[in-house]
Amino acid sequence: MAHTPDQNPYNPVVNKKKKGPDVAVVGFLVGLLFPLLALILLYFFWFGDYTFANYISMFTGINNSFMMNNASKAISLAMISNLIPFYFFLNRKKYLTVRGILMASVLFCVLIVLYKFVWQ
Fold it and tell me: Does Membrane show up as a keyword for this record (predicted)?
């Protein structure tokens, strides 16, 4: 009794199932979460002499151009952390999730442009 390649239970390519959801919303949330966690880590390593309230006001205080410049730098560095989930999901062929991570990255890029050129 011969099996066709589609019916072979020992063929790893045919029987490989996708694990986990492939949804753009999951990627968008992950794409927002990783840079936010990186911003918290940046506070401890780069802005340790600030209080946490001053660090948060750096992102919300639009009237100080020096703080806006530092905020855009911090967000730019934090966006590097999106490479971790990007390549993780790309290697697992979760292309919709990767698309969500890219959408979140574009949102952060728009925020950086606003900090650098509009609000400053």
Answer: yes
Q: What is the pLDDT of residue 15?
A: 44
Q: Burial code of 90-120, b = ≥16 C-beta within 10 A, e = fewer?
A: eeeebeebbbbbbebbeebeebbeebeeeee
Q: Which whole number is the average pLDDT over 70-92?
A: 95
Domain ranges of the chain: 24-118
What are the residues whose beta carbons fall under 8 Å from the beta carbon of 7, sequence distance 6 or more?
none
Sole residue written with tokens 């100080």? 64
Tell me what pLDDT residue 84 has: 97
Residue 89 CB burial class (10 angstroms; 0-12, 13-18, ≥19)? buried
Residue 49 — very low, low, confident or very high, per pLDDT cuts 50/70/90? confident
Cβ–Cβ under 8 Å, residues 82 and 112: no
